Structure formats: structure tokens, C-alpha cells
Amino acid sequence: MPLSVAMVGTRGVPARYGGFETAVEEIGTRLAARGHAVRVYCRTGNSETTEVYRGMELVTLPALRQRSLETLSHTGLSALHLLTHRTDVAMVFNAANAPWLPVLRAARVPVATHVDGLEWKRAKWGPTGRRYYRAAETASVRMSDALIADAQGISDYYSAEYGVPTTLISYGAPVLTDPVSDRLPELGLERHGFHLVVARFEPENHVDRIVEGFVASDAALPLVVVGSAPYSDAYTARIRALAAGDPRVRLVGGVWDQDLLDQLYGNALTYLHGHSVGGTNPSLLRAIGAGAATIAYDVDFNREVLRADGEYFRTPADVAAAVVRAERDTDGELARGKRLQGRAGEYDWDEVADGYERLAYALHSRSTPGPRRTARRGTRPSGAAR
What is the domain range of residue 29? Predict the structure, then answer.
């Protein structure tokens, strides 16, 4: 039986920003192809040119352009729209949107919340912001009909902290078996002739630590840094200051051309991944799917994906040693990338869509018990990441 499914809480599709948007596009496209009516709520500025995209209905609504209010204001308008335009189920992305869950309940729409990572650990939030995210996390547990975790570490955290189950559904990893390289000259690059970073410029992604370590190293190949971030002027300035005067560091800003981005992933000697609090990261999965030898920040989320074939860092000195070691053993790094590409086969978007479809049916039939019935919270903050 086809269902109507709302996807709420992201910037929307086409995916132009981060992991949530990528997940919504990949999952929503597949559900729509299976006959389900998929509605994606989008923010103004993302997709006004169309009302239907890859079989999904798009509803575009405004948002307050302030870091602390942008997500919450847009989700509020989306929830109000759902009051008069009900769907069979709703998938809410980001536990920060918990204040609007009572509106969805008033509309009698069963809801699953994708809780993402440990948002209250992000340095960009001050004490008030961190308290809010802890409270929203708890509210998501109590008011959602189901919780979605994208990493085992996140699932373990909710089990230990709140005593509730989650539905574990990771992201998918597109696999590039034979990446082309014809567009690399646009950036003055050669196949396997550069190191790569792709990340939003936020402290928890440790782009500054990567750049600092690289600048201190004797690496001969350039470091290509893809990324930027709204509301992060001070952190962006720090990264630029660390890179200043070193021609090996190339800050290219955001790259929204997926073909070019795939070529960067598929032809880098190494991919440096500094994400530390967000669970399973789509950039990491895209990198290993492209066969990139990955050097990742040492936390459980990243070890869960890379396992023994990952290289890990904590300090700038670790980064310096890793990139020099990679350049001294290019063949070994390429072989390591191939082994990681084999791991990518375990992250399949079709299987991810299967998981969301099963959960949607369970929600619609009310067979999923609401975790709010048993929610409890520990006495002090804890985290899955080391």
C-alpha cells in the first residue's frame, strides 16, 4: 500500500548542503519510485524553481536567517503546513526540531526523528545553546514514535543515556569503480597528486587542525580544502590565517558540482576527515566509495566505518606524519583505498530506503512503540565518541 511521507527539518532538495539533505534526496527519490507520495519541505533559496523534483513534491517555506533560529523557524512553518496537509507519516531530521513535535501529534501524524549526532557537543553553541540541544534531545525521545540513529555509537548513546531503542539506519555510499580525471586540470591538479579535505568549516570538523598539521609537514603534494560555512566567519578566518603564505594549501570554497567533487574524491592520494560528533558522515562514505585512502579523526563513529584500514589522527603532528607517510608509500595508500572501497559496499542507498520504508509502514500501523513511554535521562552528559 503506497503511503504519503513528509520529510521535515532540512534545507531540502536538490541536496546542496550536507548529510541530511543528501539522505533526503537519496531516500525520497527511491520511495517515490516505489509509488509513495513523498513531500519534502525546503527552505527559501534552495529550490523555488520547481514544485516536483525526482518524483518528490517540494513545499518551499521561508526561514529566519539567524544561526540559532533558521532550522527551528523553518520546521515550525513546515509543521503548521502539515496540520492542514496531513501525510500518513513524517520523518523529522534533527532532534533540535523537537519543540514542533506536539504540532505533528496534534495533526495525528506518526513521526520518527532522525536524531543525528551529539549536537550539544558542538563548540559553535554557547552554554544556552548546549542546554537547549540537551533539552531538545530529551524531548525528541519522549515525543517521537520512533528514533533513527545512523551509527551504532549513536544508538548505544540513546540506549545508555535514555534507556530507549533506536532504529539503526545508516547512510549509503556511492561507489565509483573507475573515476575519471578530465576535470582536474580546472584546479591545476593531477591524478593521485593531492590530498583532500571536504567539510563545513566548523570546529568539530577540525579543518584548522588538518591545515595546521599539513603546513608544518614536509609534504610535497598540495592540500585541496573544499568547504565553507554560514555563520562561521571567525573559524573561517582562522583557517585562512593558518594557510596564509603556504602555496601548497588551496582553499577552493564550496564545490556544488557533483561531477567535479566525485573526481576530487576519486583521484586524491588521501582524504582527510576531521568530523567528530555527527555519527556516520556522508562525506566519509563518499570518499571510501571513491576509493580514497582516508585519514580520519580518531572517534568511534569514524572507526566504525573505516576499521583496520583507516589511518587516524588527533593532533596536527599526527596529520603531518600521516601525509608524509602517504607520499612515501603511494602504492600502499592506493591499495588501502581499494580495501576501503570494499567496505563501502556495506552502505547501500537501496537498503537504506528499505529501512525507511519498513519504518514508515510500522509507524502507519502504529506497531512501533513510542520511546517516550520509557524515556529516562542520565544524570550527566555522556557521549559515544572517544
Answer: 4-172+349-373
* Together in a domain, 147 and 28: yes
Would you say 293 and 303 are in contact if contact means Cβ atoms under 8 Å apart? no
- The strand ranges marked E within 95-240 are 111-114, 146-149, 167-168, 195-198, 223-226
Instruction: Count Cβ atoms within 10 A of the Cβ of residue 158 and give its class: 0-12 exposed, 13-18 middle, 19 or more buried.
Output: buried
**CATH code, 24:** 3.40.50.2000
What does the pLDDT look like over 16-38, one tens digit per residue? 777 889 999 999 999 999 999 99
The kind and range of the H/E element at 21 are helix 19-33
Place of cell 579535505: 197
Same domain, 24 and 107: yes
- 294 and 306 Cβ atoms separated by less than 8 Å: yes
pLDDT tier, 386 (very low <50, low <70, confident <90, very high otherwise): very low
Dihedral (CA of 318, 324, 328, 332) sign = positive
In sequence order, the 6+-apart residues with CB closer than 8 A to the CB of 385 are: 118, 121, 153, 276, 277, 299, 300, 301
